[in-house]
Every structure is written in C-alpha cells, then in structure tokens.
Amino acid sequence: MSLATRSLPRTIGAHAILLTYTAIALFPVILVIMNSFKSRAGIFGAPLTPPTPKTFDLIGYTTVFGQGDFIHYFQDSLVVTVASLFFVLLFGAMAGFALSEYRFRGNTMMGLYLALGIMIPIRLGTVAILQLMVASGLVNTLTALILVYTAQGLPLAIFILSEFMKQVSDDLKNAGRIDGLSEYTIFFRLVLPLVRPSMATVAVFTMIPIWNDLWFPLILAPSEETKTVTLGAQLFLGQFVTNWNAILAALSLAILPVLILYVIFSRQLIRGITSGAVK
C-alpha cells in the first residue's frame, strides 16, 4: 500500500472535521442574515428555512434606518475600531521591535508582564477604569473607548509581533545601520514590510472583539452621541415587546465590516497564521 493511499483516510477525516466546524461556525451567521429578510410570522413560523415570496419582508431594515440613527452608530463603531487598531498596531509593533531587537535588564520580565494582559481579562478592572474615566472627564466620549480598546489589544499584539520580528534577518538591519539609517527608518522601512502578514493577523484578532463589544460602550459611552452598533441594536429590545426584525437586520449590517476585512486580508491572515505554526 502506497503512502498516498494510507494517508487518504486521514486526509478525508481532517477535511470532514474542518467542514463540520465550518458549518457549525457559519450556521448562526447564516441564520441571522436569512431571518433578517423575513416577516415576524416567517421568523417564528419557519426560522430554519430561507425566505419565500410569502415570508420575504424588508421591514427590519426599514425600521433600522428609519427609527434608529443606525448610520451614526455605525460611524461611531468605525471611528473607535479604526483608531484602536491604528494605535494597537503602531505601539504594539514598536514595543515588539524593542523587545526583540534590544537586550536590556528586565527584557524577559517585561515580556512576561505584558503576557499577563492576555491571561487577565480587562473587564476585571471595569470599576477602576470607570473611576479613571470619570476623573478624567472622558465618560460618554469615543476617546474613552479608544483608550480602553488600545490597552486591551496591546498585550496580544506585542506578544505576536515580537515573535515574528525575531525572525527578521539581523544582517538586513545591520546593513541598514551601516548605510546610516536611523532606528526609526529601519523599523518603518525594513522591518514592518516583512511582518505585514502578522500585522494582518493581529488586526483581525483585535478588530472582532472591539467591533462586537457591548460591555464598555454600555458602561463608558451610553449616550446617544457615542452609541456603537451593538449598543444601538439594544434600542429594539423592550421589556415586553422585542422587534426581532430590526434586531436581526441590525446584526446583519454589523457583520458586514468583519466579512469585508476578512476578504481583504484573508491571504495575509492565512500567511501569518501558517508561518507562525511553522516557526
């Protein structure tokens, strides 16, 4: 029996497991999007079937754009997410470069200290964070959310990027120093382009928790001017009556940016994950 024949059952089994996991992961997303195009009777009558001419209805989307200021909520989420990603990638890459490139007293301990941020949830410090924001006058501002999400994303970003930056050739960096390049120029022009796949990985892993978060917007920025998409969707949740058409439509629209980001960065995301696995 050839090696290819012996490995065929193993390959089929691996693909079957992956396909099963993919189906389980996509099922809730497809269910939400599918039911967002139904009437209320269609949602409760046949939630697992696609919309039919009888059940098809856009009342959820018309309610979202008519009753709630969804465009404003979407803009707030976009501003918070983009700004947080920018600071996480910038400061995370700088710190990762420093930890991987320079040897100083406490280098290892600094890395372990930053790794604690991955293991300890930032929500444990919600009371202290709220007190700090109140004292700083940042409650009900997008700045408060950006600061919290930046702090939340930095430990993972530093941990991943520092490991990738250790693989960048020392000869390349030393050649830049011999040519008279500053450390900033070496960082931005030589190192960063080589770790783009890892930065795409960090961007995706950082964006999803920020975009989907309800905890900190509800506590730090619950005013109408600073509501995010997830918090704005709560508008359609009532104590006695819940507008499921509008909620499903709002959630479907909130899914779009994550899907678009994945389509744009999917190649670099896969490269970043696989190169990290091979390392």
UniProtKB/TrEMBL annotation:
Residues 74-265 form the ABC transmembrane type-1 domain. One of its GO terms (cellular component) is plasma membrane. InterPro entries: MetI-like (IPR000515), MetI-like_sf (IPR035906). One of its GO terms (biological process) is transmembrane transport. It comes from the Bacteria. Its main location: membrane. It is a multi-pass membrane protein. PROSITE patterns: ABC_TM1. The chain crosses the membrane at residues 12-34, 78-99, 111-134, 146-165, 186-211, 244-265. Keywords: Cell membrane, Membrane, Transmembrane, Transmembrane helix, Transport. It is found in: Cell membrane. Belongs to the binding-protein-dependent transport system permease family. This is Carbohydrate ABC transporter permease.
